Structure formats: structure tokens, C-alpha cells
């Protein structure tokens, strides 16, 4: 139980660190409300779930230094740049409304974007592989418990962020700041992607 608490705490602290997933959820919640953003939340959780399963089943093909991991980093950098440019181009183009864009097609599109974001984040692969190595000698039931907890924690935290940002009162306060928030988010994502590309080029 002590090990479980330590792993759960480490995982939760990692969730608190804002990254591409956070910016995607925030932008979606601001532009379309938390219901649409929940699609991105589920997609991100599923992407994390893939890495959790790979890590806890002992698959080592995504360890740092492997060709597949390098390819994942490259694809992730390109996706970050794509998201950053998209955020910058469309900043302020969508009205802030808790009911805007709530169609099923929009929800599924955001689920797909969230899944891609989760899968193309190389930090996820390293993080879950590191956690899995700490509990490699644990019983199978505990490893399954770790995996289920991590998936649920990612989904719950992301939904909490979406609901908080996408609440009607918050949206009304964001009405004037939406273009600035989207431009800042796009700039951060663009810089992250370019930084990752430069890092890969210097290897």
C-alpha cells in the first residue's frame, strides 16, 4: 500500500505539470465548452492508457535511444508545431460559448485530437516506463491496479480542468481574453515543438 501511495502521488504530481495536453483541453474548453472538451480528455486518457499497457506488460520498444522512440519524438514535435500554428491562426475566431460546437462530430474530432496528443507525447512513454520499472516485482493484481488508477486519474484530472475552464461563468470572464489565451497557448506549443526538433537535430 505504501508503494501504491508513492506511485499514485508521483503520477498525480506529474499531472499537475502543464503540457500539450493541458493546452489542448484548455483551448477546447474555452472555445466550445467542457462537454466538447471531454472528448479530448477521453482521447488523452486513452493515449496514456496505451503507454500504461505497454509499460506494465514489459514492452521495451519505446525506451529512450531506440529508433521507434526517436520517430515518436519527431512525430510529436511536428504535431506540437501543427497545433501551435493552428492555435495562432484561429485565435479568437470561435465565439466563447458553453454550447458552441457541441455536435457529435465535433466531440469525436476532439477525441481523435486528444488521442493523437497523448500518443505523440514522448514524455508519456518514458514516464510510465520509469514507474513500471519501480513496481516490476509487484504482483500482477497490483500492477493492474496501478494501471487502472493511472488511467482513471488522467481522465478525472483532465475532466476537472475542462469543467473548470469550460464553466459558463469562467467562459464569460474569458470572453475578452480568449484570443490572447489562444495565442499564448499556440506560441508555447510552437516553441515546445521547435525545441524538440532542435534537440533531435543536435544528436
SSE diagram, text form:
Blueprint (H helix, E strand, L loop, with lengths): L1 H15 L3 H13 L1 H23 L10 H23 L14 H16 L2 H13 L5 H27 L1 H7 L3 H24 L2
Helix pairs in contact: 1-7, 2-3, 2-5, 2-7, 2-9, 3-5, 3-6, 3-7, 4-9
Shape: globular
What is the tally of helical segments?
A: 9
* Structural class based on helices, strands and sheet pairing: mainly alpha
Largest sheet: none
Q: What distance lies between the first and last C-alpha atoms, to the nearest angstrom?
A: 41 Å
Task: Report the strand count.
Answer: 0
Contiguous low-pLDDT stretches (5 residues minimum) are: none
Strand content: under 5%
Helix share bin: over 70%
Radius of gyration: 17 Å
Label this structure with key terms.
globular, single chain, 203 residues, 0% strand, mainly alpha, 9 helices
Report on this model:
With 203 residues, the protein is an all-alpha fold. It is 79% helix and 0% strand. The protein has nine helices and no strands. The chain has helices at residues 2-16, 20-32, 34-56, 67-89, 104-119, 122-134, 140-166, 168-174, 178-201. The longest helix is centred in the last third of the chain and has 27 residues, at 140-166. It is globular, with a radius of gyration of 17 Å. The mean pLDDT is 77.
Quick structural summary:
The chain has 203 residues and is mainly α.
